[in-house]
Write a structure and sequence with these properties.
Blueprint: E1 2-7, H1 18-27, E2 30-35, H2 44-51, E3 57-66, E4 75-80, H3 87-115, H4 121-125, H5 134-143, H6 150-155, H7 174-183, E5 187-190, H8 205-217, E6 222-227, H9 232-244, E7 248-252
Parallel strand pairs: 1-2, 2-3, 5-6, 6-7
Antiparallel strand pairs: 3-4, 4-5
The structure holds zinc ion (ZN) (2 copies).
C-alpha cells in the first residue's frame, strides 16, 4: 500500500497547491497522505476538501523547526492528526510567521547588498503562498541567474554561508513544539533522522540517538523510518532506534517538487500498512 505521511505544498516550500498534491497522490494510488508544510497549516482545509469522498485518507499535519538541548542544530518535528482549530497551535504559528517575516526582510536587504541587486519583496512572495524563507530566496536568485542551482542558493544562507543571518529571537524548543502538537490532539514524529547528516547535523549514530532520547523525554510519539531516499544501513538503524524507544513508525517522501528534488517522489513508499504503526485506525 502506498503511504506518504510527509508532503509539502506551496504554502511552505513545495511547488504545488494542496489540491494538486492530493490529486497527484490519488493518481498514484496513495491511500494515506499527510500534508506537512513547514510551520504553517494554511493548506490543510483545501487538501481535506479535495480528498473528500475520494479513496484516500487525508491527515492534517505540519512540520515544525525545533531546537534541542543536545545540539546547536535544530531538527524537524512532524505533527500528524492535528485539530487545526486549536487556539494554542494557531497562536504559535502566528508567532513563527511574524519572526519569519522579519527574518525574510532582513535577508532580502543582505542579498540586495551582496549581489548589488534590486530584488523586491513581491518577487520573493510570488514563490510561496506562505512567508518566504530560504528556499524561496534561492528560487529568485536562480531566476535571476545569480546562482547556478537551488542548492548553491540555499548554501549562501546556511551556518557557514556568506549570507548567513542569525535571528536574535529565541528559537522554538522541541519540548514546546511537541506539547502544542499534543494539545492539538496530534502525534509528534521525528522527521527524516538520517537526512540531517547531509547538512552536517547529527552526523554520528550517537548524536542521532541522543536526539531521539531527548525528544522521547518530551513525549515524542513516533519517528519516520521509511523514507524516499534512505540507505539500507540507515533504515536498519532507524528501525532499531524506533523499537528501542518504543516509538510508532511513520514514513514519507518529503515531497516538494520532483524537478528540484527528484528523489523525493510523492507516493514512492509502497509498504505493508501494518509496519506503519503511527496510522490511526479510527
Ligand atoms: Zn524536514
Ligand atoms: Zn519536509
Amino acid at each position: 500500500m502506498k503511504i506518504d505521511l510527509h508532503a509539502h505544498t506551496f504554502y511552505s516550500d513545495g511547488s504545488f497547491s494542496p489540491a494538486e498534491v492530493v490529486n497527484l497522490a490519488l493518481e498514484r494510488d496513495v491511500k494515506y497522505l499527510a500534508i506537512t508544510d513547514h510551520n504553517i497549516i494554511s493548506g490543510i482545509k483545501e487538501a481535506v476538501k479535495t480528498a473528500e469522498g475520494k479513496p484516500i485518507n487525508l491527515i492534517a499535519g505540519i512540520e515544525i523547526d525545533s531546537a534541542v538541548k543536545c545540539s546547536k542544530d535544530p531538527c524537524h518535528i512532524v505533527g500528524l492528526y492535528l485539530d487545526i482549530n486549536t487556539p494554542s497551535l494557531k497562536k504559535l504559528l502566528e508567532e513563527i510567521t511574524e519572526k519569519k517575516r522579519i527574518k525574510s526582510a532582513k535577508r532580502l536587504e543582505l542579498v540586495n547588498k551582496y549581489f548589488n541587486s534590486n530584488i523586491t519583496h513581491e518577487e520573493l512572495q510570488e514563490k510561496t503562498k506562505g512567508t518566504p524563507g530560504t528556499p524561496h530566496m534561492a528560487m529568485v536568485l536562480l531566476d535571476k541567474n545569480l546562482v547556478k542551482d537551488i542548492g548553491e542558493g540555499i548554501k549562501l544562507f546556511t551556518k557557514r554561508g556568506t549570507l548567513h543571518f542569525e535571528s536574535p529571537e529565541k528559537p522554538l524548543m522541541a519540548e514546546e513544539a511537541i506539547k502544542i502538537i499534543h494539545e492539538a490532539g496530534g502525534l509528534a514524529v521525528l522527521a527524516h533522522l538520517p537526512d540531517y547528516k547531509k547538512e552536517n547535523k547529527f552526523v554520528s549514530e550517537t548524536e542521532q540517538e541522543n536526539l531521539v532520547k531527548e525528544l522521547v523525554q518530551y513525549g515524542l510519539d513516533g519517528m519516520e523510518v521509511y523514507l524516499a531516499d534512505i540507505s539500507e544501513k540507515d533504515k536498519k538503524f532507524c528501525e532499531k532506534i524506533a523499537k528501542k524507544y518504543k516509538l510508532k513508525v511513520s514514513c514519507g517522501s518529503d515531497f516538494h517538487n520532483e524537478k528540484f528534488i527528484p528523489q523525493n517522489k510523492l507516493g514512492i513508499i509502497d509498504i505493508d500498512p501494518k509496519k506503519i504503526t503511527i496510522i490511526r485506525k479510527d
